[in-house]
Amino acid sequence: MVCVACLIPLFLVPIVNLLPVLFHILMAKVYRMLGKEYQRPERAPPACPFKPSATKPNNSVTGEEPSSGAPHPVPKAVGVDDSKQD
């Protein structure tokens, strides 16, 4: 025998998975009553937690911008001399 409380999660999982679909159906009906068209927002594909995301290859071709992770070189001012003269 299995208690009824132990079976509740088996019935809740499909209902919870259907909540986004039911939300979009409900929003489409509300928008239709208001005379507008409801467009579902674009969702990002799920990222795999086991593999790291693909990194961008470094482009060492001259004339291209450095990657966003690399620090930008600080240009020296023209005409500034670092040495002291007495």
Task: Outline the secondary-structure elements.
Elements: H1 4-34
Organism: Solanum commersonii (Commerson's wild potato)
Region (Disordered): 41-86
Protein name: Transmembrane protein
> What do the pLDDT scores average to?
76
The residue fraction in helices comes out at 25-40%
Biggest sheet character: none
Structural class, by secondary structure, is mainly alpha
Rg calculated over all Cα atoms:
29 Å
Spans with pLDDT under 50 lasting ≥5 residues? none
Strand content: under 5%
Count of helix runs = 1
Please tell me what the overall shape is.
elongated
* Terminal residue distance: 98 Å
Got a strand count? 0
Region (Disordered): 41-86
Protein name: Transmembrane protein
Organism: Solanum commersonii
Walk me through what this model shows.
36% of the residues lie in helices and 0% in strands. The protein is built from one helix and no strands. The mean pLDDT is 76. It has a domain of 32 residues. By secondary structure, it is an all-alpha fold. This is Transmembrane protein.
